[in-house]
Amino acid sequence: MTGEIKRLRRPISVEDQAIVAGVRVITAIRTGLELISLESPSAGLAALDCVVRRTVVAKTGDKRLGARNPRLMFTKGREIVDAEFVPAALRLKRGKRLALKLLDIVSPLSESYAESRSSFNLHQLGLPDFVQQWNVVHEGSLLTRLDFLHKETKTALAIDGVGKYVEAGRGRLKRESYQHNTLLSMGFKVIHFSFSEVMHLPVFGLKLFEQVPELLKFRRSAFLK
Questions:
Q1: Which of 13, 41, 87, 174 is buried most deeply by CB count within 10 Å?
Q2: Residue segments in the chain with a per-residue pLDDT below the cut of 70
Q3: What average pLDDT does the structure give for the chain?
Q4: pLDDT of the residue at 149
């Protein structure tokens, strides 16, 4: 009974079971739904975002759909959520209401755990109008794809990690510097968030509203109270 392993005993319907490498397990969808109560809503959202993204790629056979046409990927992801995720949530014996509410914001456009957490943060801050993976065209060609964009205030969020610069080298850093400066010249406000900032909602919110205070007038009530 270690702290690293949490054991649960509960009935699981056949629809929520799968066979992986000859072992009977619960499905990835049910796993994500269980994580909502077992860990946290933000952890559950990250898992479910990952599942729906992989499902869209598997069903379309297009690994680059999110880059080429993020709006189409979002539409296909939401169709999968309605057809497969919602029925699984309705089979839950506990936590059904919270699970169904969280499914309203599940998206295949989150490309990382940090982006899923950022999406959750924005909804908790009452800013659901940020869109994910928005392609910006400059002088007739694709300049960059923004992680998040608030269209009314032209606020762009970049979810950064030191690792990507270490792995990609100076070339990527130079390219992203050009993209950043071009976005500024186009009237965008660009805010970069580190992984540690994303993981702490108060820090995330403070930085966001300090840099773009006009976002305050767009706030609604928190997604989860």
A1: 41
A2: 1, 161-173
A3: 92
A4: 97
Mode of pairing for the β-strands spanning 17-20 and 23-26:
antiparallel
Check residue 131 and give its pLDDT.
Answer: 96
How distant, in Å, are the alpha carbons of 81, 100, 154, 175, 178 from that of 103? 7, 5, 27, 36, 37
Domain 124-218, classified CATH 3.60.21, yes or no = no
The answer to whether 56 touches 79, Cβ cutoff 8 Å, is no
Please tell me whether residue 26 adopts helix, strand or coil conformation.
strand
Please give the pLDDT value at position 169: 53
Contacts of 163 (CB under 8 A, 6+ apart): none
How far apart CA 166 and CA 113 sit, in angstroms, is: 19
* Predicted pLDDT at 109: 97
- Cβ atoms of 88 and 30 within 8 Å: the answer is yes
Domain boundaries along the sequence of the chain: 14-109, 124-218
Bridge-based pairing state of the strands 155-159 and 189-193: parallel
Amino acid at 133: Q
DSSP one-letter string for 112-158: SHHHHHHHHHHHHTT-TTPEEEEEEEETTEEEEEEEEEETTTTEEEE
